[in-house]
Specification:
7-stranded parallel β-sheet; 7 strands; single chain; Rossmann fold; globular; alpha/beta; 18% strand; 238 residues; 8 helices
């Protein structure tokens, strides 16, 4: 059985041998889904990654931007997963900033108003134990957010003072070419790509744009990865 697995892995490596090398953050959904504990294993990996980031930054709060080269690669779903794990399992006070178009519903309108309350709040918060584990989601126009960050150089630091982790759920550079400008305000940048869809040249182009603006690039999340080995067979390979 192990020979079959080795052969499949070798074929996969050969197929992707010319892909640009980037640090591998992980594969969201890449854990074989046949086991009841599959999600918890992935969650543990995410928790470990966040703990290493926190230790490396040696700071209080921090900002992570998630970005993709093309629309539909799952940036929002990965952001939601990261935010849920950090809030529920790490008991972190989390802010998710969804950057996009204008509000389409009353709920979204309230979410936009909430962003302005947060971004204009200059008070230093008093952290209480019961305030941990809170997940807040707001929406803001991308161009409004970037203008505020440029106009108010203390905004990013204020956000990090109020929250343990801030996630910027940013549009792809296909939709918003200026998304890479936001990397200047992030402590960590993660590229989200869809397995077997994103082209190597598109990934390399995005990487170059990010590194031109920032040195915060951490690596890549491989989203929607499918295992071609049957579940029953995979369980016998370990």
């Amino acid at each position: 059985m192990s020979n079959i697995f080795d052969a499949l892995e070798q074929a996969r490596r050969e197929r992707h041998k010319d892909d640009p090398l980037l640090p591998d953050v992980g594969g969201v959904g890449s854990t074989p889904p046949n086991k009841a504990g599959a999600d918890s294993v992935t969650d543990a990996e995410i928790v470990g990654m966040f703990a290493r980031i926190q230790e490396g930054l040696n700071a209080g709060g921090w900002i992570m931007q998630l970005i993709s080269s093309q629309a539909g690669e799952g940036v929002s779903s990965v952001t939601e997963r990261f935010a849920k794990v950090s809030s529920e399992l790490q008991n972190q006070n989390v802010l998710v900033v969804k950057l996009g178009d204008g509000p389409q519903t009353d709920r979204q309108l309230n979410s936009y108003s909430r962003w302005h309350e947060i971004s204009e709040n200059n008070e230093v918060p008093v952290r209480q134990p019961q305030s941990k584990g809170v997940l807040t989601e707001v929406r803001v126009l991308f161009e409004d957010c970037i203008k505020q960050l440029k106009k108010d150089p203390n905004l990013a630091n204020r956000l990090k003072t109020h929250y343990d982790i801030v996630f910027f759920d940013s549009p792809s550079i296909e939709v918003e070419p200026h998304s890479v400008e936001l990397t200047r305000y992030a402590d960590v940048v993660v590229i989200v790509l869809e397995s077997e869809k994103t082209k190597a040249f598109a990934l390399q182009s995005l990487k170059e744009k990010i590194t031109h603006n920032s040195d915060a690039l951490l690596g890549v999340v491989l989203n929607k990865r499918c295992f071609h080995i049957p579940c029953g067979l995979y369980s016998k390979l370990h």
